[in-house]
Protein: Zinc finger protein 135
Organism: Araneus ventricosus
Amino acid sequence: METYIKMNETHVISDLSVETVDTDENVENEKNKKYFTCGICGKKFCQKQLLNHFHIHTKEKPYSCAICKKDFSQKIHLNKDLRTHTNEKPYSCDVCGKRFSHSGNLAKHYRVHTGEKPFSCDVCNKDFSQKIHLNKHLRTHTNEKPYSCDVWGKTFSHSGNLDKHYRVHTHGKPYSCDICHKNFSQKSNLIMMSLNYSLAPASI
């Protein structure tokens, strides 16, 4: 372990922003902190953080979920996984009240209210609020279809389209017409049927 950890006691105080240092006591505490440098990637951490970080390089995963048996390199990742089982959502939007299990998801959600779209398509310059939406959009340019039906082998660009396709095999038709009581596998087909009834001339 010692070959990968270098102690660095001369932390540069000038790197601190004005907002984070507002008293002499804070500056003095920062001076007294001992930072350690990862000998592999050069990142600096306090001792406890470095030990957690080191698991990334060693591929060690000492934290295990008792429910799904999945292993994790850091305890914070285990805690995130546990929320998927308990459905705990401790992070709340102070604008609309919607709750989230992870702080990162709350940060992404805030863009709905702020209108921020930091992810831009290099092809058509269209902007998106989340990277996952940009990745989906990019497939319209590349024609990439990473989702494959394991029955027919048909491929799709989006997982939602694959889910719709699977209903062909399962005969799942969850959408029912209130007028003719015919069932449909896709909501769009039900809407089209409803439009046909609304446009049809009334019987005399």
